[in-house]
Design a protein that fits this description.
By secondary structure, the chain is mainly beta. The protein is 2% helix and 49% strand. The protein has 1 helix and 52 strands. The strands form 13 sheets. The protein has a 7-stranded antiparallel β-sheet, with no helix packed on it. The chain is elongated, with a radius of gyration of 33 Å.
């Protein structure tokens, strides 16, 4: 019988016990055992029968003692020994032995009982390499930067070989060179192939070396002040960024141990963020943007939740949630002193950051769902009931407020920002069966439209015709970003770029792994930033490939002074200088 090989990573006591039990079950010959008789010869059963093992694989032997009449003898001791324990190590059990192949070579395992002996020869070889897999298979790097590739060596049985380093090479070392660890340094613009080889097996990655962009931040006049940057929630910052200058500026210790932070906002040289915890003390923090040092904090106590903050004109606004602890708070962003707190309706819901426009605050709320407007002193201006769903914030533009109406009679509703009166709505028959799910925030596009991903669909609503403009079916989720007539959306684990006018596909970035991206993305003139729980990526919008990454993931913000902020799930905030 052939035995399936196991690498060292796959060894288990349970597997050994099962193998030996199978060998022991084959030891009886039906002739009747002779308790304590004289052993004349030994019969051996070997797994695998060929005696061929790979390094790291286990084999097994069962001994059957017989007397001179060929009767099976029981209750007698059996000794075991290997002629070379560096090649084959023997582990003895009452019913037989397990042998571990440790190094290439040959060894004889001998069983003895009294004067009877029997032996079996084992030959140990290295498991052959079946394939090499390089990731990512396509990528981009800018002249002057280093990108790192990784290679996995797979054996012929599908297992991973961790002790077989690959040899890296480049088809054009003048364009991009690669070191022994897969670090590729880009030298000149163009395409090049990077190859990883091991024992005659190879895989490659196509690398596009990109010319260094000329940074331009002249059009960036607005700060990142609410969810997805501004009141339209597009995630767009109109800068051309130069990845060659990207560098970590600072990283905080875990200032909220065991929990992460909500998406940060920036104002007056300060980073403002709130804890995203489900128990323990909830806080609002202000950090110095240049150093990451804590300037002040406000502790709300052990309340249910603190939503992400919004910022305007020296004031930070934040909503707390639960029941009796549901308030809209305002603090001086410089000192942390309280300016007001006003009660609002809430029933254990969490929302995205409030939007501050024209000196007024617009936010989600309501005991059974809805949205509010407050003036700059905390006085309620109006409330509109929408339906009970959470995790959103309204969009605001040109004197109108836009929101979705939840699961009951789902539609897009347009509210007069001054009075709270309903002025328009858009229905979609496809929503009637499922309603709007939690976390759906409207994004105001550049084509008189509202964009959203919901229920696996990517949607564009036409505000002029007041109907669904186009839709694409898929596995769409998360928050879309939009800039320069292109919509960026998450479809499963991929990122797609689609034409804003009709939803047609322009290009797609296939993830190098299958981890889920965080919901929000940031787009600039030349790059798209996205993140999962462990890594933040930057995709080049012209090459349609990953051009930069950093080993930290979380909620993303991008300040007008060029700070990419990554609020991690473990309470660590990382600031990358991208300007």
């Amino acid at each position: 019988r052939a035995m399936t090989p196991m690498t060292s990573a796959g060894r288990s006591t349970h597997g050994l016990t099962l193998m030996l039990a199978l060998l022991a079950s084959a030891c009886g010959d039906g002739t009747g055992p002779d308790e304590g008789g004289s052993v004349v010869f030994l019969g051996l059963q070997v797994v695998p029968e060929t005696g061929q093992l790979y390094v790291g694989q286990y084999g097994g032997i069962a001994a059957q003692p017989y007397d001179r009449d060929h009767h099976l003898v029981t209750g007698v001791p059996i000794s075991w020994a290997s002629s070379d324990t560096n090649v084959v190590q023997v582990y003895s059990f009452s019913s037989g032995v397990s042998v571990l192949a440790k190094a290439p070579g040959s060894a004889i395992v001998v069983a003895s009982s009294g004067k009877a002996e029997a032996s079996v020869a084992f030959t140990v070889t290295v498991i052959p390499v079946g394939s090499v897999q390089v990731t990512p298979d396509t990528s981009a790097a800018y002249v002057g930067l280093t990108a790192t590739l990784s290679a996995v060596v797979i054996d012929t049985f599908g297992g991973t070989l961790t002790d077989r380093p690959v040899t890296w090479s480049s088809t054009n070392a003048g364009r991009a060179s690669v070191d022994a660890n897969g670090a590729v340094t880009a030298h000149s613009a163009g395409d090049v192939t990077i190859i990883a080889t091991r024992e005659g097996k190879a895989d490659s990655a196509s690398l596009t070396v990109l010319a260094r962009p000329a940074a331009d931040w002249s059009a960036v006049t607005e700060e990142w002040v609410t969810f997805q940057g501004g009141a339209a929630h597009t995630g767009y910052v109109p800068a051309t960024v130069d990845p060659v200058v990207f560098t970590k500026l600072w990283q905080t210790p875990s200032v909220q141990s065991g929990f992460g932070f909500n998406q940060a906002v920036v104002g007056g040289g300060r980073i403002l963020m709130s804890s995203n915890a489900y128990f323990g003390t909830q806080r609002l923090l202000a950090l110095d943007a240049a150093t990451g040092a804590e300037l002040w904090s406000h502790e709300f106590g052990t309340i249910h939740s603190v939503d992400p903050p919004g910022y305007a004109d020296g004031t930070v606004y934040v909503a707390t949630g639960g029941h009796e602890e549901s308030f809209l708070w305002a603090f001086d962003a410089a000192t942390g002193s309280e300016r007001f707190h006003t009660a609002y309706g809430n029933q254990w819901s969490r929302w995205e950051a409030p939007v501050i426009s024209g000196g007024n605050v617009y936010m989600a709320g309501g005991y059974f769902g809805g949205m509010y407007s407050f003036d700059g002193t905390g006085v309620e201006r109006w409330f509109v009931e929408l339906g009970q769903y959470e995790g959103f914030t309204p969009a605001v533009a040109d004197g109108k407020v836009y929101a979705f109406t939840g699961a009951v009679s789902p539609e897009i509703i347009v509210i007069d920002a001054a009075t709270g009166a309903r002025v328009d709505s858009i229905t979609d028959p496809g929503l009637m069966a499922i309603g709007w799910a939690a976390g759906t925030t409207p994004v105001l596009g550049g084509a008189h439209n509202i964009l959203a991903s919901h229920g696996g669909r990517l949607l564009s609503f036409d505000l002029q015709t007041r109907q669904l403009g186009w839709q694409v079916q898929g596995e769409y989720a998360g928050q879309v970003a939009v800039a320069n007539a292109v919509v960026y959306a998450q479809n499963g684990t991929d990122v797609e770029a689609r034409r804003e006018s009709d939803g047609s596909l322009l290009w797609v970035w296939h993830r190098p792994d299958v981890s889920q991206l965080w919901p929000d993305m940031i787009v600039t003139r030349n790059m798209l930033f996205a993140s999962d729980g462990a890594t933040t990526f930057a995709l080049d919008l012209n090459a349609h490939r990953q051009g930069w990454s950093y080993p930290a993931g979380g909620e993303l913000s991008l300040s007008k002074d060029g700070l990419l902020l990554i609020a991690g799930s473990e309470g660590v905030l990382t600031a990358i200088k991208v300007k």
